[in-house]
Amino acid sequence: MKAIVLSGIRKFEERHVPDPAFRSESDVLVRMRAVGVCGSDIHYYTSGRIGSQRVTFPFVIGHEGAGIVERTGNGVTRVKPGDRIAIEPALSCGRCDQCVSGHENTCRELLFMGNPGQLDGCMSEFIVLHESQCFPVGPEVTFDQAAFAEPLAIGMYAVERAGMPPDAAVAVLGAGPIGMSVFHALRARGTGMIFVTDYIDARLDYARRLKPAWAGKPVTADVVRAIRSVVPSMVDVVFECTGNPEAIAQSLSLLRPAGKLVIVGIPEADEVAFPIHELRRNEIDIVNIRRQAHCTEKAIGLLASKSIDMSGLVTHHFPAADTALAFDCVSGYRDGVMKAIITF
C-alpha cells in the first residue's frame, strides 16, 4: 500500500510499505478517506519534536482521521465492514489506575497515533485499529466532519473541565481549529459572553460569524481594555488555545480573581514562566488539557444532529500526493487556511 512518510524536517515522501497486519481478534482494517492536518503534526513537520517526543525518520504522522471499515477481527462487535467511522487516535490500556478512574487520556500505557515511539499515524491508504478506536458515523456526517470530531472532542473536553456556570464570561485566545472547537462547544452548552483574539484576520473573520461579544488582534487592539469596557470585573475563564507564551501571560490580565486559566494549546517552548505572586494573590486556577476523555461520541452526536456545524472550518483539501503542499500551507498560515484535509 501507499503511505505518506515524514522523511525529514519539512520533507514528505510517498512510499510503498507493507499492508498493516492484525495484532488481535479485536482489530479493524480501515481504508482511510480523510486526514486533518493538526497543529501537533506541524510541530513534528517543522522541528521533529514536541517536548521530549522526538521523531525518528522516516515516520508516518497524522491522527485526525475518518475512513471505511474493510475487515474486522473475529472478536469485533462495535463495527462491521462497510461502516463509515471517525477515529479515536488514543489507545488506552483500560487497566491502570488512570483508566479505572476515568482518566484514560492520562493512561500509564497510553499509545497515540502519529506519536514517536507509540503508533504510526493515519497518513496511509489502510490502517489497523483496535475496535475501541472506531466510532461509527451516519451518512449525515461527512468524512471531513468525522475527521474533525477529534479536535471538536478536545474543545468539548476543555469546556467540561473548566466547570463553569452557564452565564460565565470567557475568553478564547486563538481562533484556529482548536480555539473554534472550544467556541462551538461553548455555544452548544450555552454560556455568557465570549471574547476571541487571534493574529490572523481570516480566523477572526470566521470567529465573528459566531457572534462573539468582541474579537480582535492583540497587535492592533488593547485586548485588556476592550474586554474591561464590556465586563469590568473581567472574565471567569480563559481558554488559551495558541501555546504562545505571550498569550499565556496575557491570560492572567484577563482573569478576574478566583478565575481559571485552561491551557489547551501546545507550547513549542519546554518551559513557560508565570508571575507566581499574581497567581497566588488572585487565587487563579490552572487547568491543563491532555487531549480528551469521553467526548468523541458526544462530538459525533452534535455533528450528526447539526447542533454544531464545523463545515466552514475546513477551508482546504489536498490529495495525499500533495501532503507536502498541505503542510507548507498550514505551517505558513497561507491562503487563509483554517483546517486542511488530506484525502485518500
What does this 3D model show about the protein?
With 344 residues, the chain is α/β, with parallel strands linked by helices. The chain folds into two domains: 2-136 and 310-343, Quinone Oxidoreductase, Chain A, domain 1 (Alpha-Beta Complex); 152-288, NAD(P)-binding Rossmann-like Domain (Rossmann fold, 3-Layer(aba) Sandwich). The chain is 28% helix and 27% strand. It is built from ten helices and 19 strands. It has helices spanning 39-47, 97-100, 143-162, 177-189, 201-209, 223-230, 245-254, 276-281, 296-304, 323-331, and strands at 2-8, 11-16, 27-36, 49-50, 53-54, 64-72, 84-87, 90-91, 111-112, 126-130, 134-136, 170-173, 194-197, 214-216, 235-240, 255-263, 285-288, 314-319, 339-343. Strand 16, helix 8 (276-281) and strand 17 form a beta-alpha-beta unit. Helix 3 crosses helix 4 and helix 3 crosses helix 9. It is globular and about 60 Å long.
